[in-house]
Amino acid sequence: MAEITAAAVSQLRKRTGLPMMECKRALEGSGGDVAAAEAKLREEGRKTQETRLGRDTDFGRIGIYADLAKGVGAMVELQCESAPVAALDDTIQLADDLAKQLATGPGAATPEELLSQPSPSKPGKTLAEQKDDLFNRIREVFNVSRIVRFEGASGGYAHHAGRPKAALLQVEGGTAEAAKDISMHIVATGATAVRKEDLDQADVAAERELQMERARKEGKPENILGKMVEGRMRDFYAARVLEDQPFVKDEQQTVGQYAKANGMKLVRFASWELGK
User: Fold this and answer.
1) ∠38-91-131 over CA atoms, to 5°?
2) What number does CATH give the domain 59-195+243-273?
3) Helix or strand or coil: residue 62?
4) Is residue 33 predicted with pLDDT exceeding 60?
5) Distance in Å from the first CA to the final CA of the chain
6) Contacts of 72 (CB under 8 A, 6+ apart)
7) Helix axes 20-29, 6-16, angle to 10 degrees
8) Residue 1 banded pLDDT, cuts 50, 70, 90
9) 76 or 217: which leads in pLDDT
10) Distance CA 172, CA 163 (A)
């Protein structure tokens, strides 16, 4: 049997984060080959993961990478089993690495495609290997459940106190600070469209008809029904349309006015709450 040196054990432990004795046993099984031992540990971890795939992953992080100058933006939802694990530095790093690679790499249509790509913070490893290594250390299931990428100047904001929420905003012009401020507004208010025209027009028509019916039931004269309904529709729009909402940092102006004052055009956005 090949001699298992302390240096080899230390090297494998550094690469995997696993306990010393587990690393030593893996090296004994590989005849002292560090790379083979690491591959074996990862394979054993994958088999263990397969037995736990049905476990609930109700916690996690939303990673964001946004850069106005580079003209890219991405957001990734990483779910895990518990709140303490969601707050670990390694979990945060994985979520951030996933978002950075999605934004700055070749792009990906699916989480699986993204996971097959290199890790920005772990040279020589894929994101899937980074995720598998984290499972081996923590023994919790991690799922990459959603990804989105914008090919254009973007800003973003993530809020992880309580239930994680985040928004990624594509813009033209403006500043990174203004884009982040508006992303923060989206997270706080739950807007669903940039402008009225972006709303599902069938939903708009249904709401207008509902308000018209309510006004008639209230006995309002026919000659004022139109104005009444349009007044009530303003509330409908204010709850959904980003440009029309009072800006959370200065309610004396709308988000659209704030964007214009900062030389910014709002293009599109994605807004998530973890698991929803």
Assistant:
1) 35
2) 3.30.479.20
3) strand
4) yes
5) 53
6) 65, 66, 103, 104, 149, 150, 151, 152, 154
7) 110
8) low
9) 76
10) 30
The answer to whether 19 and 102 are in contact (CB under 8 A) is: no
DSSP per-residue letters across 83-107: HHHHTSHHHHHHHHHHHHHHHHSS-
Residue with tokens 């004022």, as numbered in its chain: 224
Q: What is the pLDDT of residues 128-168, one digit of tens each?
A: 999 998 988 888 899 999 999 999 999 999 999 889 999 99
Amino acid at 156: G
CATH 1.10.8.10 fits 6-50, yes or no: yes
Return the structure tokens found at 78.
């990483």
CA distances from 165 to 22, 199, 220, 266 (A): 38, 22, 42, 20
Q: Buried b vs exposed e over 46-69: b needs ≥16 C-beta within 10 Å? A: eeebeeeeeeebebbbbbbbbbbe
Q: Domain locations in the chain?
A: 6-50, 59-195+243-273, 200-239
pLDDT at 61 over 90: yes
